Amino acid sequence: MKINSIILENFRNYKNLELDFDESRNIIVGENAQGKTNLIEAIYLTAFARSFRTSNSADLIRFGESSEKDDQEGRQAHPQDDRTAE
After folding, report:
1. Which of 10, 27, 45, 66 is the one with CA 20 to 30 A from 72?
2. b/e code 26-36 from CB counts within 10 Å (16+ = b)
3. pLDDT of 19 strictly over 70
4. In the predicted model, is pLDDT for residue 85 greater than 80?
5. What is the spatial distance between Cα 38 and Cα 82, in angstroms, rounded to a whole number?
6. Is 6 helix (H, G, I), strand (E, B) or coil?
7. Using CA atoms, how far apart are residues 54 and 60, in angstroms rounded to an integer?
């Protein structure tokens, strides 16, 4: 499989990441705890539709953020009141 680019939003420690890959080789380097394994996990997740680190998909969402599913369920549980005050 060839990956041209990846976009991450609220994935593990990444708030927003847009990354284009080189056609031949890519080397991922960085200090400890900077997200190298998280990037590899995102690529793996894209290829195999599961994480190699966790079976709980909630662990993949950036700390302090909610999933789109949580947002949708919240809107359904608490729909906006369209009435205006008189």
Report:
1. 45
2. eeeeeeeeebe
3. yes
4. no
5. 42
6. strand
7. 8
